Amino acid sequence: MSDKKVLEKVNIIKECRKLGLPLFECPHFIFSMMGILIILTSSAIYFTGFKYTEDPLLITLTVLIVSAVLFTMSFIITQGFEKLAEASRMKLEFLTIISHQMRAPFSNLRWVIELMKSGGAGKIDKKNEEYLDILKENSQRMEQLIERLIMVSKIEQNMMPLKKKKASFEKIIEKSILEFKAFAAASNVKVSFEKEDNFPEILIDPGQTREAVDNLLDNAIKYSKKSGKVKIKIYTKNKKAYFEIKDDGAGIPKSDQKYVFKKFFRSENALKNQTDGSGLGLFIVKSIIENHGGKITFESEEGKGTTFIFSLPIKK
Amino acid sequence: MVVKILSKNMKTILFVEDEAALHKTLGQVLRDKGYNLISALDGKIGLELAKGEKRPDLILLDLILPKVNGFEVLRKLKEDPETKDIPVIVLTNLESTGDIEKALELGATTYLVKASYGLEELVEKVRKTLK
Predict the structure, then answer these.
(1) Tell me: the pLDDT tens digits for B31-50?
(2) CA distance A227 to B59
(3) Nearest partner of A219 among A230, A227, A210, judged by Cα
(4) Which of A7, A74, A166, A307 could connect to A34 by a Cys-Cys bridge, CB 3.0–4.6 Å?
C-alpha cells in the first residue's frame, strides 16, 4: 500500500462517508475504537504486571503477543465489514443507475403509444388499438416499478426530503379513493371511509403522504376477497392523526409478519393470491411515515384480513 | 442534425433534445397542433438556433445534452440580451431538488419531469406558456 493510500485509510470520516455509513456503523471507526481499547487495556495490564511481578519481560512479551493477535483479528473482522458495506453501496449505486437509465426509454415508449393511439402517426384499426392498450398497460407497470426502485434508492441515500406544509389529510385520502375507484369496482371490493368531525389540517408532505395512502389502499384492494370490504378510518388521539385501513382479505401468515416491511419481500400468501407486486410498497410506506416522525403497525390473521395503522404528528 | 419545418405566422418552438425518438413523438404532436418546430440534437446547435434567423418563441430544453449541457445552454441563453426573454421550459428526467432549483435560478420558466407527463399535458403546458 502506498503512503498516500495509508494516509487516505487513516482519514476515518472520509472513508465512512465514502461507504455512506454513519460513524458508529463504519468499520474504520469501529477498528480505530477497538485499537484504542486494545492499546489502553494492554498498557494497563503491562503496568500492573510490571509493578506486581518479578519477571516484567515475560509480561511485556505476553502483552505484546496478545495485543498483536487482537489487532490482527479485529483488522480481519473490520475488513470483512468493509467489504460488505462496499458491496451494499455498489448494489445501491447499480440500482440507481439502472432505474434512471430505464426511465428515459419508458417515457419515450409511453409517448409513442400515446401518439399512435391518438392517430397522430396514422390511422389505426380497432384490433391494433387493443394491442396498443396492452402495450400501454405493460409499459405503465414497468414505469411504476422503475419509479418505485428510484424511490427506494432515494430513501436509502437520504435523498427524499420532506416538503411539509399544512394540508387536509382527509382530502388526500378522498383523492386516493377516487383514483382507486375503478380498480376497486373491477375487483368487486367496496371501499368505505369514516372520519372524525372537524379533522384538523396536519403538517405533512402531501405528495409522500398520498404515496403511502395509495400503497396501502392498493394492497388492501389487491389482497381482498371477491365482494370484499376495505374500511378506512381517520381519527386524532394525543396530538396525533391516525389512519387505519382494514381489509378482509388473505391476511399475512404469522411466520412472514416480521418481514413485511423489508424491501423486496413478498409473503407466500401474497404470491399465491396475487402475482403482481414488487415487494417495495410497504418498505416505502414505512420510510415515509417514519420520516414524518410517525409510526406504522399492523395486525393480521391468515384468512381473515389485515389492518394497517399509521400515526402522524399533527404539528411539528 | 438540424430539422427545420417553418410556416409563417405560427409560433416557433425550438426543441433541444438528444433523443431522436422524442423529436418524432413530441415534435409530431406539436406540429399537429400548429406550431413551427426547430429541432436540435445537442446543446451547441440549440444555442446557435436560438439566435438564428427565425427566433423561437419558446425553447423546450433537455438538461443532459451532448457538447453543451442543458444548464450551460440555459445560462448562456439568459445571459445573452438577444435570447434572454425567450421562455424556456426544461424537460428532463432529472428530478432532484438541487437540479430543479438550479434550473429555475438560471431563469427557466417551468421545470417538467418527462416521466410525469403525457404528450397532451406537455402540449397544454406549451400552449399556456406561449399565451
Answers:
(1) 989 999 999 999 999 999 99
(2) 52
(3) A230
(4) A74
- Which three-class secondary structure string do you get for chain B? CEEEECCCCCCEEEEECCCHHHHHHHHHHHHHCCCEEEEECCHHHHHHHHCCCCCCCEEEECCCCCCCCHHHHHHHHHHCCCCCCCCEEEEECCCCHHHHHHHHHHCCCEEEEHHHCCHHHHHHHHHHHHC
Distance from CA of B70 to the nearest CA of A (A): 16
Q: Determine if the pTM surpasses 0.80.
A: no
Find, in chain A, the residue whose alpha carbon is nearest to that of B62: A104
Give tens-digit pLDDT for B57-97: 999 999 989 999 999 999 999 999 999 999 999 999 888 88
CATH number, domain B12-130? 3.40.50.2300
Cell representation of residue B58: 419558446
Q: Is A116 helix (H, G, I), strand (E, B) or coil?
A: helix
Nearest to B114 among A107, A147, A161 (CB): A107
